[in-house]
């Protein structure tokens, strides 16, 4: 007979699947011992660039019990966003995760449904939902709960699935049955390191965030550094190069989340269309998109940097 921890864990995983999540893994909520020195060294080298928020809440980042009082379990979830179609070749490029509606809203809704399910089925369970909006090391938790391994490009990778998915967590005060980490399957491959246009992957498993195209085009608010001129490979928002070249992404299958489908005009827009984009078109195409983060002025700046 299943003990209640195993039974509850199975129920939660089945419901996560029903809600459309790709997979679900569960870890004990505890201090992330191996991550602490790595995060500290990364911050010391200023690899976070202007992302000063990465330095805040150092302890909370490493210990979920400081983030959610009385927490016992971290439930990690993956949600596929790989599109069935991509942009036309003659276009400035957007990271695939930003094609559809802002993932924060889409996932938050699913996470809340999962939490309500747990409360309805199991009883009084407290917890919080996280979608890359709080100091949670989501890749570390997903790896700890067996959903994949952290690849040389520092993204989570899963056999048979690749890496084009979002990671989210529910941190709850209920003890569950815990999963085990999987093994690393990068082997001797260096495809991501060799392909990075700005050489941001400084060594296997270490990405200098302050050199990453995603950082420049989304996070950096001031002028783009002239020494990177011509090195952006036409990326105007985010960058997927290290994922696109990864052999494991040969296995990516299109998502089935209608809210992640792109605005009808988006995929056909050419470089000329992007260069002439007006604020009205920007608002229409990106009305519910994560691209709104960079604002019209930010996208315009990025396009001008690619064009000039």
UniProtKB/TrEMBL annotation:
Subunit description? Monomer.
**MF terms in GO:** 4 iron, 4 sulfur cluster binding; cobalamin binding; epoxyqueuosine reductase activity; metal ion binding
Alphabetized PANTHER family for the sequence = EPOXYQUEUOSINE REDUCTASE
Q: Which HAMAP family match?
A: QueG
E.C. numbers? 1.17.99.6
Organism (species) = Winogradskyella psychrotolerans RS-3
Q: What does the entry list as the binding residues for cob(II)alamin?
A: 61, 132, 156, 167, 214, 239-240
Q: Which residues form the active site?
A: 132 (proton donor)
Which residues are involved in binding [4Fe-4S] cluster 2? Answer: 196, 212, 239, 242
Q: What is this protein called?
A: Epoxyqueuosine reductase
- Its pathway? tRNA modification; tRNA-queuosine biosynthesis
Residues binding tRNA: 221
Q: Which gene encodes it?
A: queG
- Cellular localization per UniProt: Cytoplasm
Per the record, the domain of life is: Bacteria
Q: How is the cofactor bound?
A: Binds 2 [4Fe-4S] clusters per monomer.
Looking up InterPro entries in the UniProt record yields: 4Fe4S_Fe-S-bd (IPR017896), 4Fe4S_Fe_S_CS (IPR017900), QueG (IPR004453), QueG_DUF1730 (IPR013542)
Positions annotated to bind [4Fe-4S] cluster 1: 186, 189, 192, 246
Q: Which UniProt keywords apply?
A: 4Fe-4S, Cobalamin, Cobalt, Cytoplasm, Iron, Iron-sulfur, Metal-binding, Oxidoreductase, Queuosine biosynthesis, tRNA processing
């Amino acid at each position: 007979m299943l003990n209640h921890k195993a039974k509850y864990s199975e129920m939660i995983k089945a419901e996560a699947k029903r809600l459309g999540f790709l997979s679900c893994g569960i870890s004990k909520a505890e201090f992330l011992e191996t991550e602490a020195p790595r995060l500290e060294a990364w911050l010391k080298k200023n690899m976070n660039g202007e992302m000063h928020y990465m330095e805040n809440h150092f302890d909370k980042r490493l210990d979920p019990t400081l983030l959610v009082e009385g927490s016992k379990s971290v439930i990690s979830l993956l949600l596929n966003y790989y599109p069935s179609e991509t942009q036309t070749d003659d276009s400035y490029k957007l990271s695939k995760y930003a094609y559809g509606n802002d993932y924060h809203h889409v996932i938050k809704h699913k996470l809340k449904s999962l939490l309500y399910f747990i409360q309805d089925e199991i009883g009084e369970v407290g917890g919080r939902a996280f979608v890359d909006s709080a100091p949670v090391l989501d890749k570390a938790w997903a790896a700890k709960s067996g959903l994949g391994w952290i690849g040389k490009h520092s993204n989570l990778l899963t056999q048979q699935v690749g890496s084009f998915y979002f990671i989210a967590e529910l941190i709850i005060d209920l003890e569950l049955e815990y999963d085990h980490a999987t093994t690393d399957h990068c082997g001797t491959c260096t495809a991501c390191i060799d392909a990075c246009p700005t050489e941001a992957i400084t060594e296997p498993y270490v990405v200098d965030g302050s050199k990453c195209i995603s950082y420049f085009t989304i996070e950096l608010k001031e002028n783009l550094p002239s020494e990177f001129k011509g090195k952006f490979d036409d990326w105007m928002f985010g960058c997927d190069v290290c994922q696109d070249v990864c052999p494991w992404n040969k296995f990516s299958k299109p998502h089935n989340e209608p809210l992640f489908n792109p605005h009808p005009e988006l995929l056909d827009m050419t470089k000329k269309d992007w260069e002439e984009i007006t604020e009205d078109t920007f608002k229409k195409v990106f009305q519910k998109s994560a691209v709104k983060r960079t604002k019209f002025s930010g996208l315009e700046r990025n396009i001008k940097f690619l064009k000039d």
